[in-house]
Amino acid sequence: PIFRNAQFEISIAKPSGLPPPNGSEIAFAGRSNAGKSSAINTLAGHVRLAYVSKTPGRTQLLNFFRLNCGACLVDLPGYGYAAVPEKIRREWGGLIETYLKERENLIGLVLMMDSRRPMTELDRQMIGWFAPSGRPIHVLLTKSDKLSRGPANATLIAVRKELAAYGPQVTAQLFSSLKKTGVEECERIVTGWLGM
Ligand code: GDP
User: Fold this and answer.
1) Dihedral (C-alpha) 73, 125, 78, 115: value to the nearest 10 degrees?
2) Which residues does the UniProt record annotate as the domain EngB-type G (predicted)?
3) Dihedral (CA of 97, 101, 75, 21) sign
């Protein structure tokens, strides 16, 4: 269980605050309210490691969590919250884009999307920033408990079909923090990225 016992290490607000590379990093990203904090807490087996937002879009920091294996989970700020002023939104976008494009020890991206509305324009932009590097992206279609089996599987198939255009390193699965479904599949994928 790769994410178990993750420990908070540091938060940064600007690219200039990035710590020197130290171990592989796995980024977690998603629209605000996509269920990212819940997914991190579920994977880490920790009730409140990542802060579950009452106000969507509130997390404006990159939060680094050290894993037992020495790698880092990096929680990126949620994007796409409409009530955030344009200037702030641009700053976050800049921070996320810079981190995704330039961080040399970032080996993969876990991208959370609400399974009821996956592949929004901003989700595609994130994939567009990262996929050209050839590094892997794994999409968690979150809150899958809110769909019945047929529609959930149909969503998974449709998303996989769209992702195939980016290459075989871009994968997807269903995930529910509420039901704890998909935890092992996600662990297996990320463990593979780390070559463990
Ligand atoms: P974040 O903004 O992406 O970090 O999203 P949060 O983790 O804060 O979750 C946003 C909302 O979705 C909260 O009200 C959560 O309780 C709810 N939520 C998150 N994961 C699940 C899930 O697996 N199932 C259900 N039914 N609700 C979820």
Assistant:
1) -90
2) 22-196
3) negative
Give ipTM to 2 decimals: 0.99
CA separation, residue 12 to residues 60, 92, 104, 130, 185 (Å): 9, 12, 17, 20, 30
Per residue in 74-86, pLDDT (tens digit) is: 999 888 877 777 7
Q: Residue 177: CB within 6 Å of ligand 1?
A: yes
Q: Pick the atom of ligand 1 nearest to 175's CA.
A: 23
Fold of 7-193: Rossmann fold (3.40.50)
Q: Are 129 and 99 in contact (CB under 8 A)?
A: no
Residue 195 CA to ligand 1 centre (angstroms): 30
- The atom of ligand 1 lying closest to the CA of 112 is 3
pTM of the predicted model as reported, rounded to 2 decimal places: 0.95
Ligand 1 atom closest to Cα of residue 32: 2
